[in-house]
Amino acid sequence: PIFYPFLDSFSQLAAPQYPKIHLYNEEQVLSWEWSSANNDTRPVVYRVQYKYITSEHWHDVTVKSVGVNCTRIPETQCNFTNARFLRCSSVSLRVRAELGEIVSAWTTGLWFQYYQNVTIGPPKDMLVTPEAASLLIRLSSPFELPRKCGIVFVYYIHYWEEAGVQQVKGPMTCSTILLDNLKPLKVYCLQAEARLSLQTSRPGRLSNISCYETMAKASSKVQQVALISVAIFLVLLALSAHLLFRYKSQVKYWFHTPPRIPSQIEEYLKDPVLPILEALDKESSPEDTWDSVSVISFPAKEDVLQTLESER
Ligand SMILES: *[C@@H]1O[C@H](CO)[C@@H](O)[C@H](O)[C@H]1NC(C)=O
Ligand SMILES: *[C@@H]1O[C@H](CO)[C@@H](O)[C@H](O)[C@H]1NC(C)=O
Ligand SMILES: *[C@@H]1O[C@H](CO)[C@@H](O)[C@H](O)[C@H]1NC(C)=O
Ligand SMILES: *[C@@H]1O[C@H](CO)[C@@H](O)[C@H](O)[C@H]1NC(C)=O
C-alpha cells in the first residue's frame, strides 16, 4: 500500500492548516494553508461555515446567507469584508477541504468578535494648523462605523518636542484636537491613533510621524490690532496731558466761565426798580425771584474777575 502523507486515517483527506483571521479596519479575511502533496489531479475546493456563539447550527457561507460565497471555492481564503455578520456578537468559523466525494475533517476553534479583535488603522487624514504656542489637529475617522452597537472612535495624539519626552493626549471623542500649552516657535512631532470606545479596545496603528513648528505667542492679528490701538491711545493721552499742563490757565478759565448774562439784564439786576422786574413781580413773589437770580449771578461774576486777575 502507498503511504499518502496528506490523508488522515479518518477522512482520507488532510484538513486545512494554520487558519488565520485578519481583522483590520473593515477587512475581515479568513485564510488557511493546505500542503498539496496530492497526486490527484482533481482540484481541491474548500467550504467555510459559520455560526453565532449562541447558536447550535452551522451555516454555509453563501451569497444568500451572508452575502459572500465561500462554498466550494478553490482559493485558500474567504474574504468576509462585505459579509453581513452581526458585528456585535461572536462568530465561530470552520473550514474543510473537499475533493470529489472525499471531505476532510473540519478545522475548528476559530472565533472572533469584530469589535474585540479588530485592529484600527490610523486616522485617514490629518490636517495640522500651527497656532500660537499650540497646534490645531483635525482628524478624519479611519472608516465609517455602523451606529448599531453604540461604539465610536476615540483618538490619541502622541507628541514630543524634538529630542524630548513623548507625551500622549487622549482618549478624545472629538476629531478636532487642540494641543495647547506648547512652547512658542518650537518644532513638535506627532502621530495620531484611533481606537474603539471600548475598555478592552486594542491599540490602533499609528499614523506616520510629521513635524510642525508652533507660532509666536502674540502673533495673532487680533492681538496686533489691540496692541496698536493701545499704543495710539497712550500717545494721545500723553499729548493731551502735555497740552493741559502747558495751557493750564486758559483751560481753567474755560471751565470757570459762567453762562453769559446779557449786559442789559445785568443792569436790570443791579437796579431792581426798573419796570421789567415790576412786571415779573406781578406773577411771582419778589423774594423767590430775587434770591435765585442773585445767588447765580454775583458769585459767578466775582469768579471771572478773580480768574482774570490771576492771569495778570
Ligand atoms: C501518482 O499516481 C500515478 C498513477 O496514478 C503514479 O504512477 C505516481 O507514482 C504517483 N505519484 C506520486 C508522487 O505518488
Ligand atoms: C461559489 O464560487 C465557486 C467558484 O468561485 C463556484 O464554483 C460555486 O458554485 C459558488 N457557489 C455558489 C453557491 O454560488
Ligand atoms: C479575539 O480575542 C479573543 C480575546 O482576546 C481571543 O481569545 C481570540 O483568539 C481572538 N480571535 C482572533 C481571531 O484573534
Ligand atoms: C507612511 O510612510 C510609509 C513609508 O515611509 C509610506 O509608504 C506610506 O505611504 C505613508 N503613509 C501615509 C499615509 O503617508
UniProtKB/TrEMBL annotation:
Annotated ranges, domain Fibronectin type-III: 7-106
Residues passing through the membrane, by range: 225-245
Family annotation (Gene3D superfamilies): Immunoglobulins
Domain of life: Eukaryota
All copies of domain Interferon/interleukin receptor, residue ranges: 119-214
Molecular function in Gene Ontology: cytokine receptor activity
Keywords: Membrane, Receptor, Transmembrane, Transmembrane helix
InterPro entries: FN3_dom (IPR003961), FN3_sf (IPR036116), Ig-like_fold (IPR013783), Interferon/interleukin_rcp_dom (IPR015373), Type-II_Cytokine-TF_Rcpt (IPR050650)
Entry GO CC: plasma membrane
PANTHER family documented for this protein: INTERFERON GAMMA RECEPTOR 2, INTERFERON/INTERLEUKIN RECEPTOR
Protein name: Interferon gamma receptor 2
